[in-house]
Each structure stands twice: as structure tokens, then as C-alpha cells.
Design brief:
alpha/beta
Length: about 325
């Protein structure tokens, strides 16, 4: 009887194999959703709309940007993690929603290592440490010295607990021995508004947002988090130059598929993204966002995520970062 059942199972699999292979070969034959953890506007949304346009041209099917903000990005990520792994729903997120939000929000909503298959990185964006111009701080050393004073009143604007902006601030405190109060906002816009108004003294922000305010003199840049100085801010030192020799970081965006998505589909989408992101016209569009377009193979992206996870999770735990 067992042999008959095994034989029947093999026969059933064999019968469906051509249909599965045909479906994969014909992918996509209907619209594909690219689910985002943020509202329209901002770098991730801008990056998603650039690649969705290019993917639609490459595959002759709509790639629809589906914005599902909330809960530190977990609403969107959990939705994709629980979606059918058929190649028609993908997640495009950033550092926080992909790696850190379940830990920070203390919700076992998903685990990127178990619930997702990495497809490709998309873009990388450095951060700028900037202060309100009314403050006396001209260098990172000035800011750190103030932060070491007992009872100091330094405040840092964060767009949300567990964002890369927040984690860089925690890292700098841990490494320098300084301390300041972190004020969490519901997004980057209100955090920026209060920095410009002088309600908080400084923040870490993406160059695409910070650049115009620095040029207008509405904020003053002290350092950038990239390994090299930025062409937009050639006179602003890196954090490495400011004394943090081994430190550099960027916010990233990347695409993930629900675990179980056919490898052939993942490979095809990854190859398309790598080709798109290597195109000079596309790269120029990403530069207007202050970002570098950079695709990767699924294996490369998985290794990168594992490295970032190992790097930042200790910071989260040692700093007791929590959204509660």
C-alpha cells in the first residue's frame, strides 16, 4: 500500500510539473504588486516608482506600487510574508522594516531569514549629521563634548524607533560616551519640521532631504556616514574622519519575496533589477534622490542582510531600544 501511495504521489507531481514549469516560464502574466512600508513620497517610494516603471517595460506587465504604512513597516512586511509565494507579491523595504522592527516593536510578526527570500538590493543612501544653526556646534567633537556634560539638554530628532537614523545616534552615544535625549516622531517630515524650528538641536537625515536645508543655511552639516565624502558636501568630513575609524553606514532599500517563491521567478526578477540598476539613465534618476542604485544577486543580498543584522542587533539590545 505504501508503495502504491508513493507511486501515486510521484505520478501526481509529475502530472503537475509541466503546469508549474509553464506558469514559471510565463511569469508574469498579470499585474505584480510591490508592497511598501511607507506612504507616498520619500526615498523608498521614489525608488520603488523608478524600478516599477522599468520592470513594467521589461516584463510587459504592470508592477503596482502598493503603499501600506504603519507599525514600523510591519503591516506591509507581514502582509507580504503571508501572501501566496506565486511571484505576484513582493516587499520593498529598508533597514528597519526588514531587519529590526519585529524586535523593536516586540511582535513576532515575521523573521526575514525564515519568511522571506532576498531578491536584490536596490539603493543605498548616506546620512548627514546636521544641527540647527543657532547651536554653537561646528564639529562632531563639539557635539560629543556637550553630550558628555552631566545634565546636558541635547535633543536628537528621530523619524521613528529603530530607523537607521535612530540607530546611528545610539551607536555614536555608545562609542563616544556621550548622551542626549532622543525625540521620536511619526516619520521624517515632523522630525525635520522641529529641527528647522529649533525645537530639537540635531538629527541624522538622508542627503536628499538634508541637502537643500544645508545649502540654504537652515541647518549646518557636521559629518556624513558614508565611507567617503559626498560630492554634494565636499567640505563635510565623514564620521571616520571625525574619529570613528571603523564606522560607516547607509540606509538601503531592497526587494524580498515570500519564502517559497519559485527560484526561477526570484532569479528572473533579480537579473532584471540588476540590469535596470546598472543603466546610466536609471542611476542618474537615483542620484536625484541622493542615492546610489546598486543591484545584487539573491545570494549577495542575503549575505548583506545577515551582516547588517549581526552588526545592528547588538546595538538595539544593548541600548534597550523599544517602541513601547
Amino acid at each position: 500500500m505504501k508503495e502504491l501511495i508513493a507511486t501515486a504521489a510521484v505520478a501526481v507531481c509529475a502530472a503537475f510539473a509541466p503546469a508549474i514549469a509553464s506558469a514559471q516560464a510565463g511569469w508574469p502574466d498579470r499585474p505584480v504588486k510591490l508592497v511598501l512600508p511607507y506612504p507616498p513620497g520619500g526615498n523608498v517610494d521614489g525608488a520603488a516608482r523608478i524600478i516599477s516603471e522599468q520592470l513594467q517595460a521589461a516584463f510587459k506587465q504592470p508592477f503596482i506600487v502598493d503603499n501600506r504604512p504603519g507599525a514600523g513597516g510591519m503591516i506591509a512586511a507581514e502582509y507580504v510574508a503571508k501572501s501566496a509565494p506565486d511571484g505576484y507579491t513582493f516587499f520593498m523595504g529598508a533597514n528597519g522594516p526588514i531587519l529590526f522592527s519585529p524586535t523593536i516593536f516586540k511582535r513576532n510578526a515575521y523573521d526575514w531569514k525564515k519568511d522571506f527570500t532576498p531578491v536584490s538590493s536596490v539603493s543605498f543612501t548616506p546620512l548627514v549629521l546636521q544641527v540647527h544653526p543657532s547651536t554653537p556646534y561646528k564639529t562632531v567633537a563639539d557635539l560629543v563634548a556637550e553630550g558628555k556634560k552631566p545634565g546636558n539638554t541635547l535633543t536628537m530628532a528621530s523619524p521613528g524607533a529603530g530607523t537607521q537614523n535612530h540607530l546611528v545616534s545610539e551607536y555614536l552615544q555608545r562609542e563616544s560616551g556621550a548622551h542626549w535625549t532622543t525625540v521620536h516622531y511619526k516619520g521624517n517630515a515632523p522630525a525635520t519640521t522641529d529641527l528647522l524650528g529649533g525645537q530639537v538641536q540635531f538629527n541624522f537625515d538622508q542627503i536628499s532631504v538634508a541637502g537643500p536645508f544645508i545649502q540654504q543655511g537652515r541647518t549646518r552639516a557636521l559629518a556624513v556616514t558614508s565611507p567617503k565624502r559626498l560630492p554634494q558636501l565636499p567640505d563635510v568630513p565623514t564620521l571616520q574622519e571625525a574619529g570613528f575609524k571603523d564606522f560607516s553606514t547607509e540606509t538601503f532599500t531592497g526587494v524580498l519575496a515570500p519564502q517559497g517563491t519559485p527560484k526561477e521567478i526570484v532569479a528572473r526578477l533579480s537579473a532584471a533589477l540588476q540590469k535596470i540598476l546598472a543603466d546610466e539613465a536609471v542611476r542618474a534618476r537615483f542620484q536625484t534622490l541622493g542615492s546610489e542604485a546598486r543591484g545584487s544577486s539573491p545570494e549577495q543580498f542575503a549575505r548583506f542582510l545577515a551582516k547588517e543584522d549581526a552588526r545592528w542587533m547588538p546595538v538595539i539590545k544593548q541600548s534597550n531600544i523599544s517602541a513601547e
